[in-house]
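Following up on my earlier thread - several people asked me to post the actual chain instead of describing it. Fair enough. Here it is, all 372 residues.
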Amino acid sequence: MTERTKIMVVGAGHIGTGVCHALAQTPRPLDIVLAGRDEDRLTRVVNTARFGALARGGTSTVNSVRIDLDDVDHAAEQIAGQRPDIIFAAASVQSWWELFTLPKDRFEPLYEAAYGPWLPFHLAPVVKLMKAVRAAGSQALVVNAAYPDAVHPLLADQGLSPDVGIGNVANNVPAVRTIAADLLGADPAEVVVRFVAHHYVSHRISRVGDSGGAPFHLTVWLRGERVDLAPEAMFAPLLTTHRRLGGLPGQAMTVASAISVLEPLATGATALAHAPGPHGLVGGYPVRLDSGAIALDLDPAMDLETAQEINRVGQRHDGIATIDDGWVTFEERSAAVLREHLGYDCSKLHWSEAADHATELRHKYIEYQNRA
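Reply from S.P.:
Thanks for posting it. Predicted structure:
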């Protein structure tokens, strides 16, 4: 990477905006480019980030470029012209939190589908972006916020997977570390956790306090020594003393998770983090970031195949039966929810069909929303 790292943030929604602001205020100056379609919003977000950084004495540059991912050739030209070292993808057709704005009687039936069947919303923009990245001949590291647990393994065999994801498994780790430290009478800085878990587990423990029967692997280390703590003792306070904001306000935690990956990658520092979809793997893992490289940091007693199997089972709980050779097959119980309530019928999806399915699903969802 160059001495002053350039990061392109693609998507000026809540996550992209939050990440742009946070990056602009990191101690080491960066060159930040915010990319999106709405030029007025781009201008406002960029100026807010610039002024906020300046108020704190920062010297990062923040600029914008118009990119419409529907025009892959033009997007490729912009990426080639900007030559970013890192691309952060924060684009989705519809965010998960939008479901939480529905009236309760409309929200609860859809929530039963879990996250998996909504995959087209997150897959479609990533496919377009990665095609543009490849067409540009870019060597940038690509960090993705849109359902990396499933998007990355689906695109891995196609040579289109981003390098690593953010959020999901990472979002509860700071709270779990804090709870573990409280139980051990220690400072959170002295505690390291290694958590292998699919999005389903991470989402459920923050809402219900248990994994819903989905497997996971969680170990705790105090000053370099492994200690035994019951996971239930660390999950229960997530609903009480250590509860946090959810929905749209809760996206602040996702932004923090993104920075925990982006900042070390940008500065070349060594850091321990958690991330979904590293190197195209299914689900979430502990990772070590070192000199711009991304490596798994599994518990020494755990092998990769065991970790992957934990996440493959978690994936089924999230509504996805299998991902294989560019195809995703949804669990029938989950597909049936969207079929019954939205009239959207999709049991199996090829990655190349993502855009059409995203358009149809969005249309069906808006109809359902309007009926509310």
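The first helix runs from residue 14 to 24. That should answer part of your original question.
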